Amino acid sequence: MWNIAKGMLITLRHLFKRKATISYPEQKRPFSPVFRGLQILNRDEEGRERCTACGLCALACPAEAITMEAAERLPGEENLYREEKYAAKYEINMLRCIFCGLCEEACPKDAVYLSETFAPSNYQRKGFIYGKEDLLIPNPKDNPGEYWKAVGNRKGNKEQSN
After folding, report:
1. 108 with 60: CB under 8 angstroms?
2. 49 and 113 Cβ atoms separated by less than 8 Å
3. Domains assigned to the chain
4. What is the pTM of this model?
């Protein structure tokens, strides 16, 4: 009889505790400062791509999830690319990515960034291979609100502190 009363007391105590679960779409938990989400490719403040296709991110990736092809900038494309070389093709296979952050650390131009966005689910394998168009953040001149949303809180705080 004592064990039943003891069990009921534990159950009553748990009824009035704060719940660990949240209503996800309405409420969102804050991200940890070390959270590593979906990879994005940065632009500079003028809207030009930062990636110079040096390949250091692909070399640093232990899962070999990043592939890229370099190309030379043509005359008249100075407003699109920062340097003379740029990544004509940049792909990341999210099925291979282990979100280690080594690509972000290896990039000398601050072009690769792991955002605070979850990798979305998909039903086909080809949906997990993101191309350059999927990874580039919006142009800050054309759409500044979406640009700062894509940059996220950590990146904004990092740039303001420098």
Report:
1. no
2. no
3. 34-161 (3.30.70.3270)
4. 0.74
